[in-house]
Amino acid sequence: MIKINIFILLAMFSYSECANILYVIPFTSRSHTIMLKPIGLELARKGHNVTVITGRLEKTDLPNYHQIQIDHKEIWEILGTERPNVFTMTEISAEEFHNLILWRGGLAFTEMALNSSQVRQFLVEDNKFDLVISEQFYQEAMYTLALKYQAPLVLVTTFGNCMRHNIATRNPLQLATVIPEFLQLTDPTSFWGRLRNVYFTFYEFVWWRYWYLVEQEQLAKKYIPGLPNHLPSLYDIQRNVSLLMINSHFSFDSAIAYLPNIVEIGGVHLSHSIEKLPKDLQTLLDKATDGVIYVSFGSNVRSSELPTDKMEAFLKVFSEVNQTILWKWEDDKLKTKSKNIVFRKWFPQKEILSHPNIKVFISHGGLIGTQEAIFHGVPIIGVPIYSDQYNNLLQVQNFGFGKILRFDDINEQNLRNKLIDVLSDNSYQIKAKEVSNRFKDRPMNPLDTAVFWIEYVIRHKGADFMKNPALQLSWLSYNMFDVCIFLLLVLILFLYLIFRVIICLRQYFLKNDLAKSKKL
Ligand SMILES: *[C@@H]1O[C@H](CO)[C@@H](O)[C@H](O)[C@H]1NC(C)=O
Ligand SMILES: *[C@@H]1O[C@H](CO)[C@@H](O)[C@H](O)[C@H]1NC(C)=O
Ligand SMILES: *[C@@H]1O[C@H](CO)[C@@H](O)[C@H](O)[C@H]1NC(C)=O
Ligand SMILES: *[C@@H]1O[C@H](CO)[C@@H](O)[C@H](O)[C@H]1NC(C)=O
């Protein structure tokens, strides 16, 4: 009898701990979903009632994992433009990348998500949520859902530190070492690097705050019913975020000071990964005793769009090596005589990288893939194409477990040199294992860390005490300008007094001298 009572008590206890959570991850890019999906699933496994607004449905039999599907369209379809060959983006600046892709795409994407029939229907239903979690990726209109449901707001990035969030929440900016996520800088700490950083940070912030967020606000008001009449601005909503989880870790990304409500969860999708390789691939990899080279430029960049000369350079060099090549290739047209190359449209990447026979990963340096290589200690040869890829690969190269191969520099000779270098010099392997070890060496794995802080915010009803008290201050006080001006005035007064004293003394002595000379 007592046993049963304890059971009921336990059940009641765990029930009261379970929350209704809305998880908004509408961006349909495959890599984003790979990183974000495990958080929602883990919350559901912990017993929370999780509702996910998503672009990619998950096959799961968890009864407390509800999915609201947004229309699945590629960003190019929404923008109404031809899908460009993504390899042409290697030349564009951070400003152009924001104007052409991120901001235009972000607005179109947000509108499409909000206008999806399942979402529209969901938004008129009478639901209650204890917490809203949203991806932070140019879809700020979604943050108003926290006000609709009167719940604390948690954000999560797929790209690491977010400069706009740092400014909004008054996290120290550290502009001498910390750059916005999509700015490419060879040496951020040099004078020109820091100058470029200050310029771009300012540029991005002004456009974001005074144009982009205003556009997002319009979308929120147009599509989300039941918002409070006096809706705070999206900027104020972001300032008041309870928790930001970022996809980085100081063992690979740089060491940065963060407020307690900014938490690093880099590697979150690798924590409880239990998926196995399919049998055919397992056999293939087991048999490749000379090692395997894995080639993939990620979900958005297509190998099949490589210019012919570069493609032939790859094929030529691959035909010369003894390793087996696994190459993510998106069409069926390519013919090659080399028996050691295996083409597939998609590979289970993290499982492939976990195989001991993998010798090198030829990659575009996307963050998710880079983290998978770090986790499994695999050296990288990286061809950066756009966004944060160059920065990720620069870090890989600086840490000594990979090499950058500029897209324009791809030719037979360069490729052969880089490949032979990375395959034959085992320092790359050693460094890769070293970074892997420190990436995994944490008090708690990143998935449990994410779940802990999410539940923490629920337990403490938004955990307002974690927010920076500097948010209450005016801009003048926060930057200490009032104090500086006061000190400056004191200094001026002090100098003035000294000046007066010197004048007085001078006059006094002059008088004395005059008197003396008169006496004589
Ligand atoms: C779980 O969330 C769904 C909304 O997706 C809601 O309809 C359902 O009532 C919730 N269940 C509980 C037990 O709160
Ligand atoms: C919203 O969706 C409806 C159909 O579901 C469509 O007719 C309309 O054009 C869409 N609006 C926008 C702005 O995409
Ligand atoms: C490939 O294997 C053969 C036979 O084991 C060996 O002689 C040759 O040097 C290897 N080639 C390379 C590029 O390692
Ligand atoms: C900030 O968020 C908390 C919950 O975390 C909420 O209680 C409070 O009303 C919000 N304040 C503003 C100004 O939005």
Structure explained in plain terms:
The chain is α/β, with parallel strands linked by helices and 520 residues long. It has three domains: 18-271 and 445-472, Glycogen Phosphorylase B (Rossmann fold), CATH 3.40.50; 279-440, 3-Layer(aba) Sandwich (Rossmann fold), CATH 3.40.50.2000; 478-519. 48% of the residues lie in helices and 11% in strands. It has helices at residues 2-17, 30-45, 75-79, 94-115, 117-124, 145-148, 163-169, 191-223, 234-239, 279-287, 308-320, 349-353, 367-376, 389-398, 412-424, 427-440, 446-459, 475-478, 481-519, and strands spanning 20-25, 49-54, 65-69, 131-135, 153-156, 243-246, 262-264, 292-296, 324-328, 341-344, 358-363, 380-382, 402-404. A seven-stranded parallel beta sheet has the order 3-2-1-4-5-6-7. Helix 4 runs parallel beside helix 8 (191-223). The termini are far apart. Residues 7-15 have low confidence and may be disordered. Bound molecules: 2-acetamido-2-deoxy-beta-D-glucopyranose (NAG) (4 copies). Belongs to the UDP-glycosyltransferase family. It comes from Diatraea saccharalis (sugarcane borer). It catalyses: glucuronate acceptor + UDP-alpha-D-glucuronate = acceptor beta-D-glucuronoside + UDP + H(+). This is UDP-glucuronosyltransferase. The chain crosses the membrane at residues 475-499.
